[in-house]
Design brief:
Number of domains: 3
Shape: globular
Distance between the termini: 57 Å
Number of strands: 18
Helix content: 10-25%
CATH topology of the largest domain: L,D-transpeptidase catalytic domain-like
Length: 318
């Protein structure tokens, strides 16, 4: 029985007793009636730890949470607004670092340590990470060699800050802030949530999922987009020794839901900005695909903190 139902039943019982006593007194007229004032005990069921957690697990809303940044697009534009973190190259089929056959987008990606998804978006001038048709003279951006990334995940605000660190100047650039979904309440964990707290690196066992791709999750075979959306980036090594075990956790998209009536998929964005995952960090599809395109070829650290102000962000501000 839920807490509200128990309280309602207790209240009704109290009103019934009071009403009965009033009726009895009216019938007896002048007969004195002594009423005991013993308090009525109402049993209230104890909430489970998870229920208690959800009573107060609401993202903090303050100036830090409301402040937004988005200049990721400047990594992809080849115009005058591009960030100094990227370089623009012109496509040539014949290149000195590849002999014997024409070079394609995948070859440029491998040579410049930049994902082909990154090159595709820059080449296409829009969020198209798959079309990779190039002709001689086409231009696109690649990431500078001495570049790394740093992600700060704030558990109290369900928010993430995405920084680029220029290895040559040691300057950091805030590229974008994202709203994220986090793990459920867990009183036994170091962080208080299923999402582990600490500093971690990103692993290289990344994955792209499409409708129809099957896999195993919690020992059950399932269509992977229904759990992980379209991208998966795992957490691996822990660095500070203060957090939880990152094994099995990572970044992925919001789960997809299949509508039987329309026979289409729909992204469940209700899980973003809330505490509903099994511990992984969820992002909207557009956000996880953007992040994936940028970070998978460069060293990237993730710091998961209770409050943004606790983070030790490397580099100096521009």
């Amino acid at each position: 029985m839920s807490i509200p139902k128990v309280i309602s039943i207790g209240a009704l019982t109290l009103f019934a007793v009071i009403g009965g006593l009033a009726l009895f007194k009216k019938k007896e007229g002048s007969v004195a009636l002594e009423v005991a004032t013993k308090p009525i005990e109402v049993a209230i069921e104890e909430a489970t730890p998870e229920e208690k957690g959800h009573q107060y697990l609401r993202p903090v809303q303050d100036e830090v949470a409301d402040r937004e940044e988005d200049q990721v697009w400047r990594l992809f534009t080849t115009g005058r607004h591009k960030l100094p973190l990227v370089e623009t190259v012109r496509y040539r089929a014949r290149v000195p670092w590849l002999k014997g056959r024409p070079a394609w987008v995948t070859d440029y990606a491998a040579h410049f340590s930049t994902s082909r998804h990154f090159i595709a978006r820059s080449l296409n001038g829009k969020k198209d990470y798959y079309t990779q048709r190039v002709t001689s003279g086409d231009t696109f951006n690649i990431l500078k060699k001495e570049l790394s990334f740093y992600l700060v995940v704030d558990l109290s605000r369900c928010k993430m800050w995405f920084y680029a660190i220029d290895g040559e100047t040691n300057e950091r650039t805030l590229l974008k802030t994202y709203k994220v979904g986090l793990g459920r309440f867990d009183e036994d964990s170091y962080s208080g949530l299923l999402t582990p707290k600490g500093k971690f690196s990103l692993g290289d066992k990344v994955a792209i999922y499409r409708p129809g791709n099957m896999g195993y999750f919690q020992d059950d075979e399932i269509e992977m987009v229904r759990v992980f959306g379209t991208r998966w980036i795992p957490l691996t090594e822990e660095f500070d020794g203060e957090g939880g075990n990152p094994r099995g956790y990572g970044f992925h998209g919001a789960p997809w839901v299949y509508d039987l009536e329309t026979e289409t998929y729909e992204e469940d964005l209700s899980t973003i900005g809330s505490y509903e995952s099994d511990g992984c960090i969820r992002l909207a599809q557009g956000d996880i695909e953007e992040l994936y395109a940028i970070v998978i070829t460069k060293p990237t650290l993730v710091e998961v903190v209770t409050d943004f102000h606790e983070a030790n962000i490397p580099g100096k501000e521009e």
